[in-house]
Design brief:
144 residues; alpha/beta; 29% helix; globular
């Protein structure tokens, strides 16, 4: 119980640091190209799209939807490599495997898991501190 509390507190502290007036780029795996109204893709590695939010002072300034050309879609990159190429500072997702967590952490991308619903809902849940900071220990065990 205390480990989960520590993880949640640490995630909220990171959130406060990230949104303190900076411009940040947030990536959210999504099922289609409907921007904020798109349902999130619950399988990070097989996400058909990524919705990229440019955020300043907690407000979305720009939305871009990119089609995934990842390995599961016949491309050459992993989903983590797509996120890195997008220059995202933050990834909001349902869950992901430990290899993706490791790769993204090495590049300084903050990962928040526990997302559900639409892209807009996911962004609001993150702003409210309701998503947890992901690490190798919280990664999806079937993708290790």
């Amino acid at each position: 119980m205390s480990g989960m509390w520590h993880s949640t507190l640490w995630g909220r502290l990171n959130l406060i640091i990230l949104i303190g007036g900076q411009n940040i780029k947030i990536s959210i795996p999504s099922m289609d190209n409907q921007a904020l109204s798109s349902e999130i893709s619950i399988h990070f590695g097989k996400s058909p799209y990524f919705t990229i939010l440019d955020v300043k002072n907690n407000q979305i300034e720009k939305i871009e939807v990119i089609k995934s050309l990842g390995k599961h879609e016949g491309g050459k990159m992993t989903a983590a490599e797509i996120i890195i190429q997008s220059k995202a500072d933050v990834l909001l997702c349902a869950n992901l495997g430990s290899k993706a967590v490791e790769m993204l952490n090495e590049r300084g991308v903050k990962i928040y898991a526990g997302a559900f619903g639409t892209v807009e809902n996911t962004f609001e849940e993150w702003k409210n501190g309701n998503l947890h900071l992901a690490d190798e220990n919280s990664a999806c065990k079937e993708h290790n």
